[in-house]
Amino acid sequence: MRRRLLTLTAILAAGLLTIAPARAGFDQPDVVSVDPVDWTPHVLDGTVYAFAVLDDTVVVGGEFTAVRDAAGRSFDRSNLFAFSLADGHVLPFAPRVDGPVRALAPGAAGTVFAGGEFRQVNGSARHGLAKVRLDGWLDAGFRTAIDDSAGLVRALASRGDRLYVAGDFATIGGVSRRALARLDAATGGVDPDFDLALTRPAGKVWVQSMTVSADGGVLVFDGTFTAVSGQDRYQLAVARTGGARAEVAAWSTDAVAASPCNPDYDTYLRGVDVSADGSYFVVVASGHAAGPDLICNSAVRFDTDGGAGREPVWVNHTGGNTLLSVAVTDAAVYVGGHQQWLDNPYGNKYAGRGAVSRPGIGAIDARTGEALAWNPTKDRGVGTEALLAFDGGLLVGSDTEHLGREYHARLGIFPLDP
């Protein structure tokens, strides 16, 4: 395999790349390379669940205890660490987080928001949510946390002075907000104009994943709810968030309820990302079932306009294997999980007619819904938990050690070719 000799430092020096914070629906013009960069650090145990890009720094969250840089130096890191996007060296940033970090979002002035299952950061109480400076210390002015003893944060998104928080909780910062809230990103104050009132007749309500468009005007989220603001929305909803007051959109679909994937799952939707202009989104799913008329174990595109009864624009089936993550760009829809194939509506744990091999990671044409030729391969494991597009390429996080037929323990970067 061709070895990548250029570092991002060299690419920047040549004026070929500008690094900026990552966002939903990233406007990358090209599909990334199949050859991962050689210098990313290795996470030596556990799983990587989340990334945030702040200028030339990548913050990595997950459930792990140790990392090693490409030069062989090892570092103790408890569920959160950072490395240089220019050359991969591990940074001194080393907050002590006492539980898994499930979500990250960039903050202002060299800060990052972390969400997950932790109770403390650096010995201070921060249940499920914290704002951390890149020197490793907590932002003392942001103390908002979830109040539920068994709650957790599953997803975060920051847009300007707003921070969206989603997960499994009933109150946050002492205010009733079931599974979804919007905060002041500086103070942590709970936004009184954001209360979408997620409900379910029986069982716990949580949000599994969410995404916010680049302009902050469209919020898409999925979870165990059956109604939003008193309107029927079965496990998938769109909200309009461009104004001061957030409102559930008229958009709805029957496609999720019409796919009986696995009665043992409260929800089989696993991840969602929205296009840069907010005009469409892609949701990925598990489900323990397969078939051309179902959306189980698949990637599904929906347009965000219109009212009730929206049908998928396309469905790309894995043939019975779970997808866990998705990143939408102008050039491709990247999907990850423990899948073996894409384009496989007629297979069920085997390659049916038309199936293409895409172990662990793949890319789909956003217009046609068909798999692109991009096929770097990766170890399948539990699956690819995190995909994040940024100016320089695509970040990949998982529980496995091989990516693009090379050793890249639990994280890697596929770059844009300069």
Structure description:
There is one protein chain. By secondary structure, this protein is an all-beta fold. The protein has one domain (18-415): YVTN repeat-like/Quinoprotein amine dehydrogenase (Methylamine Dehydrogenase, Chain H), CATH 2.130.10.10. The chain is built from one helix and 37 strands. The protein has one helix at 8-13; strands at 42-43, 47-54, 57-63, 66-68, 74-76, 80-84, 101-106, 111-116, 120-121, 124-125, 129-133, 152-159, 162-168, 171-172, 175-176, 180-184, 198-199, 207-212, 218-223, 227-228, 231-232, 236-240, 247-248, 269-274, 280-285, 298-303, 314-317, 323-328, 333-337, 341-342, 356-357, 361-364, 384-390, 393-398, 402-403, 406-407, 411-415. This is PKD domain containing protein. Residues 1-24 form the signal peptide. Keywords: Signal. Pfam families: DUF5122 (PF17164).
- CATH homologous superfamily name? YVTN repeat-like/Quinoprotein amine dehydrogenase
Inertia-based shape: globular
Number of strands: 37
Task: Give the mean pLDDT.
Answer: 93
Assigned CATH class = Mainly Beta
CATH architecture: 7 Propeller
Number of domains: 1
Report the span from N to C terminus.
18 Å
Measured as a percent range, the helix fraction is under 10%
Number of helices: 1
In percent, how much strand structure appears in the residues?
A: 35-45%
Q: Top keywords for this entry?
A:
Quinoprotein_ADH-like_sf, 418 residues, globular, PKD domain containing protein, disordered N terminus, mainly beta, 39% strand
